[in-house]
Design goal:
The chain is 44% helix and 15% strand. By secondary structure, the protein is an alpha/beta fold. Helix 2 packs across helix 5, helix 3 packs across helix 4 and helix 6 packs parallel to helix 10.
């Protein structure tokens, strides 16, 4: 009888514990911010691999043979979509993966990338009048859509873990609700007339639309678009005309252009904003929530005087 009770207890304990390492669902996320979302929802039931890690630039990433092997072994592959991972289709084909490809941004209302033209031709390496801005996570409300899509995809792939994924997604969404309130309340402390800044590339259009801050970028939404001399001259003139108080660096772009603009205009170089990637664990923004909070603090520090 005792042996029977011990066996029943062992079975119950096994059901309550997370899956062992070899039983975890193998999933892939294309870049570090998306990986943070997936890990928050998947928790201990998934084994997560990230293609473009902390401080990495997904726009210019070149996949490796190891990435193809990672995809081949995965059950789910989470991508941002909206044209962000231009190299992904080739990688999927090369890997021969049978994994489901999940577009985490599905359901987001996309914003158009601002047009950048020179000599009558599109200037922005694939981002023209008709292109979509892929940086939807910069609006916290959109991130909640990502989380719901991730929850549903994980639940479909691992039905036994559905309740875990739902609970994790709900808990993380509560945190995102708090973050969104915090962002709105903090931005409200910046005088409306001072809510204009310069950043390296156009990664903050969703943030600008949601929270009422005007971001101006010499590069387009893609970091391998080079700003033309005419673009830079126009921005310098605009800074002087509008008395724009600050320019900001980004962790995934060459900082020399922004420093040059700051030097020529007298605008304050306000620090580093995190746009397309989180930092490693020792950095200022190792998670998405840390990243948004850091960016808002940087804006307030530079714009509130």
């Amino acid at each position: 009888m005792i042996t029977r009770y011990l066996a029943i207890a062992a079975l119950a304990l096994g059901a309550a514990l997370p899956a062992r390492a070899q039983e975890k669902l193998p999933v892939v996320a294309t870049f570090s911010i998306l990986a943070d979302f997936v890990q928050n929802v998947g928790g201990e039931r998934i084994a997560l691999s990230t293609l473009v890690g902390p401080n990495g630039d997904t726009h210019v990433y070149t996949p490796t043979p190891a990435d193809a092997k990672t995809l081949a072994a995965a059950k789910l592959v989470f991508v941002n979509g909206l044209g962000f991972e231009g190299w992904m289709e080739r990688l999927v084909k090369a890997s021969g993966t049978k994994a489901a490809i999940v577009v985490a941004s599905k359901g987001v209302t996309p914003l158009k990338a601002p047009a950048r033209r020179e000599h009558g031709h599109g200037h922005g390496h694939g981002h023209d009048n008709d292109s979509t801005d892929p940086h939807a996570w910069q609006n916290v409300a959109n991130t909640k859509i990502y989380v719901a899509n991730i929850r549903d995809a994980l639940s479909a792939a691992d039905p036994a873990g559905k309740s875990v994924y739902e609970a994790n997604a709900a808990a993380y969404t509560v945190k995102l609700d708090g973050l969104e309130r915090e962002v709105r309340e903090t931005i409200a402390t910046i005088p409306a007339a001072r809510r204009s800044i310069i950043t390296s590339h156009g990664a903050f259009r969703y943030f600008a639309t949601a929270y009422g801050v005007d971001f101006i970028a010499p590069q387009g939404v893609n970091t391998h678009a080079e700003a033309s001399a005419r673009d830079v001259a126009k921005i310098i003139a605009q800074i002087k005309k509008q008395n724009i108080p600050a320019v900001f660096l980004e962790n995934v772009t060459d900082q020399r252009l922004i420093r040059r603009i700051g030097a020529e205009t007298g605008a304050k170089v306000g620090g580093t904003l995190y746009s397309d990637a989180v930092t490693d664990a020792k950095g200022e923004a190792p998670t998405y929530i840390d990243m948004i909070r850091h960016n808002v603090r940087q804006l307030v520090s530079a714009l509130v005087s």
